[in-house]
UniProtKB/TrEMBL annotation:
Residues 39-50 have a biased composition (Low complexity). This is DUF3363 domain-containing protein. Residues 1-116 are annotated as: Disordered. InterPro entries: DUF3363. It comes from the Bacteria.
Length: 683
């Protein structure tokens, strides 16, 4: 063997061992050190919590660790562990730009229709920079296809929603490019491509971005994101990008921002800092000699405390020592929310070309206690990550009302300009409760006796007597769980003397949402010249102008009613009497509705190539429910047979029967639908 052979290195790969480390799994000495450090930190954190320290116990420490929400699970966990090892999140570092990130995960959003509703509302009119409809974009498309996005996520277990709001968003050159770069960094941290769309909103004082992410990763598996990454990691990445583009926040800039908060009627960063430092609600701001740097902070806080003192939320206990009110934080939060609401209401009124005195604004935290009637001037999400809606209503009472927590399904047909009525929850009892109370003898209800009675009367839809009584028993089961009824045996139920009142109160308690009616989907101008029965007509022949205010929308309604009366005179449906009053034809509402339905039916027949036939009162209508039509007289269901179709008044109970055979009896301008055992309308 030569000397060269002794010095030559030959690579001889061995066989792949079964215990080889998995891809992405670090086995270095540093990784082992980090693992042991995490375990020690977790143990020390647990012991602190066990002793009652909680989050506040570590607030002033240097070792800030994650909250523990899924630290060991989900994509982004390695990012979280790295930040824990390096003593906290970098967005806490001096000079970092503040970014607020809100997140929410919605289960089954594609199947329940919540995804489509949320996507529709974040693209609503007036959200873009120029006041137009919000534009949906994605990583590669400036105009993303929302329907295709929804279709891709329709079977996902959950959907992620984010709101990213940089404090200095107005200074960013391109909010869309910023969002794309942020989502790119998130994909790197999570180790997968994300299916997302976003909309930029400029309809508030702070531009922000709504991002929706479908719930599957690049491999088609459920996308599970680490809890602490959702809570902190996204905010850190957003802060890094903002700081990179605009540069670190200088001390002078930070001081200017804080000075601007001194006189604000909301919870500010100055307030949060003082609350965190105050012991037993006392904060000591006595001057310390030689502390020139702290003098500026002291002056700023004293000015803020002067403002809080005028509001009754702080008092100077001794020279330089202030006591903060225990109501300080909730009061300032409420004031901030109220200020935001008032600005929203004023903006909605200005868009309508109207001005109202803010003293006439009425903000309803729950369902209004007295009925409200008015036109919708704004309709938006109450919580921009959720589905419930907020309405701003210009009332006929001269007030402008703000009502939140509205179920979108209740006002699906309402548009800006539509007339609606909102009142307290319906406190009337169910027909089933009245039937149970009526059948009870000596406080005992017997299903067997009820069954005999209805068989004798023979008035149950489709003759399904057993199903009718079973529905009453199911109602009693629900009331039993609420402690209102008591089951003695299979055929005996104990019913209290105040059963109906308690059952009605139980219904109101469970359904605290406001009672909403869409009175007209058409605005006043379209109602004036309509050939159908409008909301104005019902007021003309009913309540009239008794509850109309002399200003605002009430005055507009009065003028519209006068013009509607002249319209009826011109078309022979009314005549002016010698005393100046207007006499309307008999059965005006029914005649107008019949006229409009006939006209709409003929127009629809030309499109369907199928003859239209009006359904007279008392006739049984049978056919396939194929759709709806919105007229000024109301909403009508299209019921088709093989050789003809008809239009009959719609009711919410038939919505789930779309595309199926339905049957009902036309009675007095309405329809009593007979939908079988599963849908008994007698309950």
């Amino acid at each position: 063997m030569s000397g060269d052979d002794d010095n030559r290195f030959r690579l001889r790969p061995g066989r792949v061992r079964s215990d080889a480390p998995k891809a992405g799994q670090a086995t270095s000495f540093l990784s082992k050190v980090r693992k042991i450090t995490r375990q020690q930190q977790a143990a020390s954190g647990s012991s602190r919590s066990a002793k009652g320290g909680g989050p506040s116990g570590t607030a002033k420490g240097n070792n800030i660790i994650a909250s523990g929400r899924g630290v060991q699970r989900g994509r982004g966990a390695s990012f979280v562990r790295a930040r824990n090892l390096s003593n906290g999140w970098s967005h806490r570092q001096p000079g970092s730009r503040r970014v607020i990130v809100k997140s929410r995960s919605v289960r089954g959003a594609g199947k329940s229709g919540k995804a489509a509703a949320h996507l529709r509302y974040i693209q609503r009119d007036g959200t873009s920079r120029d006041g137009e409809r919000g534009r949906l974009y994605s990583a590669s498309e400036d105009r993303a296809d929302g329907d295709a996005f929804l279709d891709r996520g329709k079977d996902d277990r959950h959907q992620f929603r984010f709101i990213v709001s940089p404090e200095d968003a107005a200074d960013l050159a391109d909010l869309t490019g910023y969002t794309r770069e942020l989502m790119g960094r998130l994909e790197v941290d999570l180790g997968t491509k994300l299916d997302w769309v976003a909309v930029n909103h400029h309809n508030t004082g702070h531009p922000h971005v709504h991002v929706i992410v479908n719930g599957r990763d690049a491999l088609g598996e459920d996308l599970v994101i680490n809890g602490d990454y959702l809570a902190n990691g996204i905010r850190e990445r957003a802060s890094e990008l903002t700081t990179l583009e605009l540069g670190p926040v200088t001390e002078m800039e930070q001081r200017r921002k804080l000075m601007a908060e001194i006189d604000q009627d909301r919870l500010t960063r100055i307030d949060r800092a003082m609350i965190a430092e105050a012991g037993d609600r006392f904060i000591d701001l006595r001057q310390e000699p030689g502390d020139l740097r702290g003098q500026s902070d002291r002056t700023m806080r004293l000015r803020r405390l002067g403002k809080l003192g005028d509001m009754g939320l702080a008092i100077e206990h001794a020279p330089g020592v202030w006591k903060l009110s225990e109501r300080l934080e909730p009061t300032l939060r409420d004031l901030g929310e109220r200020g935001d609401i008032i600005r929203t209401m004023q903006k909605a009124l200005r868009a309508e070309g109207a001005e109202r005195d803010p003293m006439s604004f009425q903000i309803h935290d729950a369902a209004p206690t007295t009925p409200i009637v008015g036109r919708v001037i704004d309709k938006h999400l109450s919580d921009e990550l959720g589905e419930s809606l907020t309405l701003v209503i210009d009332g006929i009472d001269g007030r402008t009302h703000h009502v939140s927590g509205i179920d979108p399904a209740r006002i699906e047909d309402a548009r800006i300009g539509s007339v609606i009525g909102i009142g307290p929850p319906d406190g009337t009892g169910r027909p089933s409760d009245r039937a149970i109370a009526g059948m009870a003898e000596d406080g005992i209800y017997r299903p067997s006796r009820h069954l005999q009675q209805i068989r004798f009367e023979g008035r149950v839809p489709n003759g399904d007597c057993e199903g009718f009584v079973d529905a009453h028993v199911r109602r009693l089961e629900a009331l039993r769980r609420a402690g209102i009824a008591e089951r003695i045996d299979a055929d005996q139920w104990r019913i209290p003397a105040d059963f109906e009142a308690r059952a009605a109160a139980y219904g109101v308690e469970r359904s605290a949402r406001a009672n909403i009616r869409v009175l007209s989907t058409f605005d006043l101008e379209r109602q004036i010249g309509s050939d159908g029965a409008t909301w104005l007509d019902r007021r003309l022949v009913g309540a009239g102008a008794s509850n109309l205010a002399s200003s605002g929308f009430g005055n507009q309604v009065q003028e519209a009613m006068d013009r509607r009366g002249e319209h009826h005179i011109e078309h022979g449906d009314a005549a002016r009497q010698p005393d100046g009053r207007i006499a309307y034809r008999r059965n005006l509402i029914a005649a107008l509705q019949e006229r409009e339905v006939a006209r709409a039916g003929e127009e629809l027949a030309a499109k369907k190539s199928l003859p239209f036939r009006a359904a007279p009162d008392g006739e049984t209508v049978t056919g396939t429910f194929t759709g709806t039509m919105q007229l000024s007289s109301g909403k009508f269901a299209i019921v088709e047979k093989s050789h003809e179709f008809t239009l009959v008044p719609w009711r919410p109970v038939i919505d789930r029967q779309l595309g199926h055979e339905i049957s009902g009896v036309v009675r007095g301008g309405s329809v009593s639908w007979q939908l079988g055992r599963s849908r008994s309308l007698g309950l």
